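Data availability (excerpt). The following record was deposited with the supplementary files.
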Amino acid sequence: MKVKRSALLGLLVCLTAATAAAQIAPNNQGDIGLFTMPTADSPRAGQLTLGFYGWKEQLVAGDLPIDAPLRTRLYSHWAGEGSIGLGLTDHWSIFVSAGADRFESRGGWRGGVVNGLQFRSDFDSDEGRKVRIGTKVNFFSEADSDLRVAAFVATHVPVSNATIRQDQQGIVADQVNSRRADWEWGAVLTKGIFTALGSYTLSGRHDLDIRVANRFRIGVGVDVPIVPYFHLIGELDRNIYDGGDFPAKDYSLAYLGGRFWLGHSGVAISAAVNLNIDEVAEVGWGPAPAAGLIGITWAPWPPPPPPPVVVPPPAPVVEEVVPEAPPPPPAPAPRSTTDEILFDAGSARLTNIAKAILDGVALRMKNDLNSTAVITGYSDNLGSPESNLEISRRRADAAREYLVTRHGIDPGRITTQGKGSMEPAYDNSTAEGRAKNRRALIVVTLVSGS
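Predicted structure:
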């Protein structure tokens, strides 16, 4: 029974992992991803995606010169957005999203800066969100199919021509969003259930040359499949403001929630709570630092894997038994013979005894036409090294000349060399040893082994 339970658990884990790798859904800005972060995934070629999200964030405005406490600079950001995406290829997609924003100061507001604009009294603003148009290209590792990398770029296009004006009380805004386009680019790495993000948004200016801070965002996310149709999703990102006239305070936002698919319809419902971690650390839990997100999306359900191909076993083949031919006899192993001839002092002339020995060498080489010979000449140590080397070469050449001219041996089969007084075979301190060192050594290699 225990074995059966383990097998069923393993099967469920495998099915869950396979489903997790296949299920995708748009994030709140139209790109395939988690809640607010993209992943390195894309819809397949020719497939559309749809998404509708609403969310609220509790944020902290930038400080005015009055040095107001952080508790008096809290405001809420409400947003609703619809999106559509399209896979151009299996590795390239485009997406567009648009919606509405609401910015609203919270209780205790004493003034602050939102998106580069100064608000010295309570405010609320309802306006259109900038239209986000972007594209993403992703890559898959051949060595690790679970590793994906993507790069994306997007522009945020304003939807109205509202202006801002300046009066005696300072800047007065008709809209919080700037009327110039923002540019965003970034990269994503996804490994299994984990995702890491880095992006940078170059913000467009307001009128009156009011510069909005750029935003650098880094984040991590996790998408854990609990059952085939439900995933637990968590995000944590850090937003760092760069430049601008009155940049807001950097903050970290955490999301925790889930996504539930309605069977194989491709429709998914997402819900999460978010928390401004910096607000909790510096202000505490009052006013409330938490808000939330809800969304409904559609992306085509992945097709089922093709059924395994069953290959019928091949028909048995009756082989005719053919008696094996006896192996050929092994080729004879080569062997070599060694002969030595002696010379008079200071002479390279062949003696009669040397000629008789060379006659025997020639007979062996004639009986084996594939045989070769190496003749090495030597000398005693009485002369200079140069003269000894020269007489040793002449002695080897004399033996070779005799075999060629006297017996007609092919000269290409005979190699000669001289070594002078090097490598003496006998003692050069005695007359008898020196006489034996005035020699030539003939080594014949018989290929046929005869």
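Summary of structural features: The radius of gyration is 46 Å.
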